[in-house]
User: Fold this.
Amino acid sequence: MFEKIKFNQFETFSELVHAISPRYFRNDQGKTEEFFFLGNDKNGEKNYHVKRFLESIGITNKPLYFVNQVHGDKIYILDDADLTSNEVVKFSADALLTHIPGKPIGVFTADCLPILIYDPRLKVIGAIHAGRRGSEQSILLKVVREMNRVYESRPEELIVGFGPAIGGCCYEVEDDCVQPFKNMLPDEANWFRTGLPGKYFLNLVAVNKIEGEKAGLLPENIFSIDQCTCCSAQNLYSYRREGKTGRILTTIMLRP
Assistant:
């Protein structure tokens, strides 16, 4: 099995299971195969690959709960243990929160920033899809506030992990993509660098770190994998590098 990505800080909590999928795994025939998590699933390949990945991190006989990601700021609360994963995926959102053990939740990315969040006192977990549009709508800040509203989580107690995403080294965008962030972060400058005329390199990790701290997260409780999907080893999918490509699965679960 190819190496999965994990946050060392999350590994200290025995009640948590989490991981970020590598691009490849070794199948039953001993051959290298790519994880496939996209599109329709007429042949059952997508479900098989999700099941295979979950089993590789010790999650067996449990479906993955995920939503219909739409690059927005909506948050879905999984608070009904009787809901099926097929019902949950009908909801359009870009973040999931739950306090229910035994329900693995996850997000799919291929350059966007996957974020895991955990309240160790109240045992609440979250998975966030923070792309450019979600980040300019302050999705992480809104998740922290929603956790406080719904569960009475204290921002200063939350643990947050930023997974692999396209970095400020590679994420070149036009001025119109940067302007919303300039309006949102008028006093900050470390989230972008200037490129050719009319071009900028946007750092989604830096943006979300600023937003997280604005929401009350402590800097020492924010951790980042610091791997650029676009320019790092070919073990990660990147839409910017490849165009049509696969997805990375970032998942977390409270042990039953």
In short: The first helix runs from residue 8 to 11. The radius of gyration is 18 Å. The mean pLDDT is 94.
